[in-house]
Amino acid sequence: MAKQTGTMTAAVTMGHGGPDQIEVRTDWPRPVAEPGHVVVRVAAAAINNTDIWSREGAYGTAGDPDAVAGWRGVPLDFPRIQGIDVVGYIDSVGQDVPERWLDRRVLVDSAVRYEDDRPAEIVGSEVDGGFAEFHACAEAQLHDMTGSPLSDAQLSCVPTAYGTALGMINRAGCAAGERVLVTGASGGVGMAAVQLLADRGCRVVARTSDGKQDVVKAAGADEVSLRGADSLAAVELVDVVVDVVGGEEFGAAVDRLRDGGRLVTAGAIAGPVVPLDLRRLYLHHRTLIGSTMHTPADFAELARIAVQGGIAPVVAESFSLTDIARAQARFLEKDFVGKLVLVP
C-alpha cells in the first residue's frame, strides 16, 4: 500500500523533566510505513511508571543513582513520543509486508530490538511510542489479537505490565501449586502477576493497601496481607516473592522465603536502595533474581493468553490523549486499582 503523509495529534516529550516537557501537538508529522514496517492506528495506550521515569530521567546509573538517565543508563534523545503500550489497527503496510495485516487488530511488542533475548531498545524510549494517533513499528513486533475477548483499553494494559509480570514469573520458575507472595498487588505489574499466577495454578498471597483487598481477591489472590496494617513477618513462608516495590520492606520480603526460595524483582516504586541482611540470604540458600520486561517467547505466550481470555486487565480510568497531563498526574496519586489508559 502506498505510504501516507500528513500530520497527526501527538503528545511529544521535549526533554527530561516534569510534565511541562510534554507538548500536545496537532501538527506532528504522521509516520509512514517503511519496508518491513507498518503504521498502526492507535486505539489505546496505557500509562506506565516507565513513561514517567523515562521523562524524568529517573533511572540513574551504577555510579550515580541520582544521574539523569533513561533505563539504559544514558539520557534519551528528544523530541520523543512516549507511550510504551500500543494496541490498534493496521492503517498501512510497507514494502514486503503482506496486505492481509490491513485493519487487523494488533498488540505491539514493546521491545523493538532484543540482545540475547533481552530487550535492548523499547517503544517510547529509543523509538517513538503510542501517545499519538499513529505509531510505526516493524511487522515482527505485531501480534494478532483477532478473537480476543478483551477491549482495546484492556489490551493496551498488556505489553509492559503483563509482559514484565510474565517475565518475572518465568525467570523465577513459578510452577503450579507453589505459594507466591506478590508485593504491590493492586498496581499494574502486581495485578498482572496475580492474574497470571492464578492462571498458572499458583497459590497467591497479595500484599496491598487497605481498601483494595476485594479487587486483588477478584483477580485471583488466595490471601491478602495489608501494607500498613499487617506485618509482613506474619505471612507464612512462600516459595517465591514477586516484588515490584523495593523500599523498606525488601529485606522483610526476602525473609518470607522458605529455604531455597526465590525472590524476583523488577521495580523500585518504594525506593531503589533497600535494607538487606545478607545472612538471611545465604544462610537459607535463597536466590535473588533481577528481571527487566520479557523475552520474545514470553511475549508470544502472553499474546496467546490474551487471545484466549486467560487474563482480565482492570482499566481504572480512560483519558483523551490531549488530557495526558491530567492522566499522568492521576497516575502519580497511586490511589486507584488497575491501569490508566489514553485514548486517541
Give structural notes.
The chain is α/β, with parallel strands linked by helices and 344 residues long. The chain has 2 domains: 7-160 and 294-343, Quinone Oxidoreductase, Chain A, domain 1 (Alpha-Beta Complex), CATH 3.90.180.10; 173-290, 3-Layer(aba) Sandwich (Rossmann fold). 23% of the residues lie in helices and 30% in strands. The chain contains 9 helices and 18 strands. The protein has helices at 49-56, 152-156, 158-171, 188-200, 213-218, 250-254, 278-282, 296-308, 324-333, and strands at residues 7-13, 22-29, 37-46, 80-81, 87-93, 105-108, 111-115, 118-122, 134-138, 142-144, 179-182, 203-209, 223-227, 238-243, 257-265, 287-290, 315-320, 339-343. Strands 3, 5, 6, 9, 10, 17 and 18 form a 7-stranded mixed sheet that branches. A 6-stranded parallel sheet has the order 13-12-11-14-15-16. The chain has a 3-stranded antiparallel sheet with strand order 2-1-4, with no helix packed on it. Helix 9 links the parallel strand 17 and strand 18. The radius of gyration is 20 Å and the shape is globular.
